[in-house]
Design brief:
Largest interface: A-B, 63 and 88 residues
Shape of chain A: flat
Structural class of chain A: mainly alpha
Largest sheet of chain B: none
Order of helices and strands of chain B: HHHHHHHHHH
Strand content of chain B: under 5%
Shape of chain B: globular
Number of helices of chain B: 10
Distance between the termini of chain B: 49 Å
Number of helices of chain A: 5
Helix content of chain A: over 70%
Distance between the termini of chain A: 50 Å
Oligomer: heterodimer
Number of strands of chain B: 0
Strand content of chain A: under 5%
Chain lengths: 95, 196
């Protein structure tokens, strides 16, 4: 398969995953158990994406703790990123 | 992607039609090492499996939207747009302008992403590595995940998912994210039952 075929395959697979539940007929109710399970998807998946990236070394771990504290207190994305990057450089400088 | 030997035009096209960063980084590495196309597509499927869960939870809010809007919503589903929209819908469950809110987050996220990919293709590795900007991505995900920690059950779900993702990090095909999601959901539901 050519590079273009591979790209097309990736695009199809990704779009179908995104569209699955959105394209089911509107009358179909989401089952209660699924609805309950879905409550935990964002917390679980979003945490799973960053956790291995933070538990790499002491600097990243400490910067991650600072970022969590800032995110918890202020709930502001940009402030969290800036605080985390500053903390990373500070801990790197102190070491 | 260009750094792994993929033509710039193909990289930009991939960004437009696939629109999923994590799977693009992974597929570029696989393509560069001569992995068969079907395996590259299968890896994409696993990395992006979380979008299926996102679509299921967005369905709760958009099941009755017109089809053409649902087709567009599906294309715009991305971690950050989803995170922002779901945080908003949790605070305002009866918001009549959910579609407008989702498009208002999804379209700028899409545009910023495509411009950033274009800039990456044009400028390449012009940003000094000493800025350590690569850590901005996990930091952005920290900022997105924390607002979802609303009670003991969601905290337990996030902790279980985080630990699973770290322990299972060496699994092939980024299966760790799928494993972490399932563990997190299971633990969250267990805690919910206990609290009753």
């Amino acid at each position: 398969m050519s590079l273009w075929g591979t790209i097309l395959g990736m695009a199809l697979v990704t779009y179908l995953l995104r569209a699955t539940f959105l394209l089911l007929p509107p009358g179909m109710e989401t089952p209660g158990l699924l609805r309950r399970a879905l409550r935990y998807v964002p917390a679980a998946v979003l945490t799973a994406i960053w956790a291995p990236e933070v538990l790499v070394d002491d600097e990243r771990l400490l910067a991650g703790v600072v970022a969590i504290a800032v995110a918890w207190r202020w709930r502001a994305t940009f402030a969290t990123i800036i605080a985390g990057l500053l903390a990373l450089h500070l801990f790197g400088f102190l070491r | 992607m260009v750094a792994s030997g993929i033509p710039p035009l193909a990289a930009m096209l991939t960004s437009l039609v696939v629109f999923a960063g994590a799977s693009m980084v992974a597929s570029a590495q696989l393509l560069a090492s001569g992995t068969p196309a079907l395996l590259v597509i299968l890896t994409t499927l696993f990395i992006n499996l979380r979008f299926m869960m996102y679509s299921a939870s967005l369905r709760v809010h958009f099941a009755h939207a017109p089809l053409r809007w649902r087709l567009l919503i599906a294309y715009l589903v991305a971690d950050n747009a989803y995170g922002l929209a779901l945080a908003r819908f949790a605070d305002h469950p009866d918001d009549p302008a959910k579609l407008e809110f989702f498009l208002g987050t999804g379209v700028p996220v899409w545009l910023a992403w495509q411009l950033a990919v274009l800039a990456g293709i044009l400028i390449g590795s012009g940003v000094p590595a000493s800025w350590r900007l690569e850590f901005a991505a996990p930091l952005a995900f920290i900022a997105m995940s924390v607002p979802f920690l609303r009670d003991r059950a969601t905290v337990a779900a996030a902790l279980a998912a985080g630990i699973t993702a770290i322990v299972a990090n060496d699994l092939p095909l980024r299966l760790s994210v799928v494993a972490a999601a399932l563990t997190g959901i299971g633990v969250g539901m267990l805690f919910e039952r206990k609290a009753r």
